[in-house]
């Protein structure tokens, strides 16, 4: 191993392990719960609209944070390899089916089931929630690791 002089962490790229940090899953779930409660407190939103908004806002945030933004906020000695990868691709050094990857794959599915149930499978809500779910599940497929469809997000 190589000693990293002048950095406060021992990881070459802290993005690879941040989702395994102590309490991150609980913080993530509490954040989604707080988002839902804030949306519920808006008086003119019905319960089905709040569930759909919670699902869509969560998935939009997850898509941007995990699948659109590339690089790392840390200085890494990896010769710029991390700047070409999304956070999802950096997670656990790209190893598939780790516990953190499973958690962040299953959590939008659970939220989708809750949103579908509380919207009583209304067609409009169902289509919106399904499209939102697919927008975060498809980029997580192992077959799409490092793939840039139509050159989108290539650089």
Automatic annotation (TrEMBL):
Q: How does it sit in the membrane?
A: Multi-pass membrane protein
Give the transmembrane ranges.
25-51
Record carries keyword Metal-binding: no
Q: What is its main location?
A: membrane
- Identify the InterPro entries for this entry: ORMDL
Signal peptide range equals none
**What keywords is this UniProt entry annotated with?**
Membrane, Transmembrane, Transmembrane helix
Q: What are the subcellular locations of this protein?
A: Membrane
Q: What does this protein do?
A: Plays an essential role in the homeostatic regulation of sphingolipid de novo biosynthesis by modulating the activity of the serine palmitoyltransferase (SPT) in response to ceramide levels. When complexed to SPT, the binding of ceramides to its N-terminus stabilizes a conformation that block SPT substrate entry, hence preventing SPT catalytic activity. Through this mechanism, maintains ceramide levels at sufficient concentrations for the production of complex sphingolipids, but which prevents the accumulation of ceramides to levels that trigger apoptosis.
Q: Which family does it belong to?
A: Belongs to the ORM family.
Q: How does it assemble?
A: Ceramide-sensitive subunit of the serine palmitoyltransferase (SPT) complex, which is also composed of SPTLC1, SPTLC2/3 and SPTSSA/B.
- Protein name as annotated: ORM1-like protein 1
